[in-house]
Amino acid sequence: MTAALPTDTLTPPQGWLDTLAPRLDAPPVRERGWLFRALSLSTRLFGRTQLPDVFPVINIQPRLFLQWLWFASRMMPYGQLPAPLRELLILRTGWNCRCRYEWGQHVSIGLGVGLTDQDIVAIAKGPEAWQLQLQRTLMLACDELCRDNRISDPVWAELSTHFAPPLLVEITLLVGHYRMLAGLLNTAGLRLESSMEDALQAFHQRLSPGLAS
Q1: What does the DSSP 8-state code read for residue 8?
Q2: Pick from 64, 88, 106, 170: CA 20 to 30 A from residue 118's CA?
């Protein structure tokens, strides 16, 4: 029997989707080869103590891994969108896709690039929780892409007052990329690494009862 996941202070209305027994596991470290040893060392540059398991899981299909890694890195961490806005979009995508692994990883990353606990809660609550027009518009765009596969004309027009066409393309692809990843993560049943689980639970424990309600 699979151990129950910890109770989260914040949970999507229909719950997280990675609650079944895992279907795909990250290969043991000794079987990952030189590439993953190098990647493991590089994670320390981003304040991580271990390589996220999503990388070796994707490398189960090695023909796709390096090409995916290059593409993904052009948006995160080396995209042109400011990091707090990038993380807002990724977190909202993870929330919309009910992907606990994606959400937990990027709570930690988001806090590391300047988002606050209150920001994370507002991302979970939705566009109406934001007073700032830019953040509210990005949230609306993310919600529309996840729900309708298209940004509406009013939201697109508002985004266009803040971003040039290259960043509009990046915003749209960023949400699409993390929707794709969420599908894999939810299907694989991938669990957060212990260090990320601890960080997520520490975030929950910091929240006052009223903040997350």
Answers
A1: P
A2: 170
Residue predicted with more confidence, 150 or 2: 150
| Rg of the chain on CA atoms, in Å | 17
C-alpha–C-alpha distance, residues 17 and 28, integer Å: 24
Report phi then psi at 115, rounded to 5.
-70, 150
Helix crossing, 83-96 with 100-112: angle to 10°? Answer: 160
Work out whether the CA dihedral 179, 185, 187, 191 comes out positive or negative. negative
Looking at residue 7, its pLDDT comes to 62
Of the chain, the percentage scoring pLDDT greater than 90 comes to 71
Q: Write the pLDDT tens digit of every residue in 44-101.
A: 545 566 788 899 899 889 899 989 999 999 999 999 999 999 999 999 999 999 999 9
The beta-carbon contacts of 48-55 under 8 Å, at least 24 apart in sequence, are 48/195, 49/195, 50/193, 50/195, 52/105, 52/193, 52/196, 53/26, 53/190, 53/191, 53/193, 54/101, 54/105, 54/181, 54/185, 54/190
Determine the Cα–Cα distance for residues 212 and 209; give it in Å rounded to an integer. 6
State phi, psi for 186 to the nearest 5 degrees.
-65, -40
Helices 165-188 & 133-148 angle (0-180, nearest 10): 50
State the pTM of this model: 0.90
